[in-house]
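Re: that backbone. Tokens:
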């Protein structure tokens, strides 16, 4: 299992830390893991699954014959 830091998460998801916190609170983003008083991380597999769900929801481009 690999944990992502805030910096790694921001590079992968491209959301601000404030927006990530709002999504977590709403229950629509994987929850952070508290590692210590000033350190948190996110389970990489959970974040990648969340991203894959977004990719799967995209509309398929129309095919031109």
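Recovered sequence:
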């Amino acid at each position: 299992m690999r944990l992502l830091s805030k910096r790694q998460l921001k590079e992968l998801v491209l959301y601000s830390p404030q927006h990530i916190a709002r999504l977590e609170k709403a229950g629509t983003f994987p929850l952070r893991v508290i590692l210590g008083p000033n350190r948190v991380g996110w389970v990489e597999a959970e974040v990648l699954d969340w991203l894959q769900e977004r990719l799967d929801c995209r509309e398929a481009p129309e095919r031109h014959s």
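The CA atoms of residues 48 and 54 lie 10 Å apart. The radius of gyration is 14 Å.
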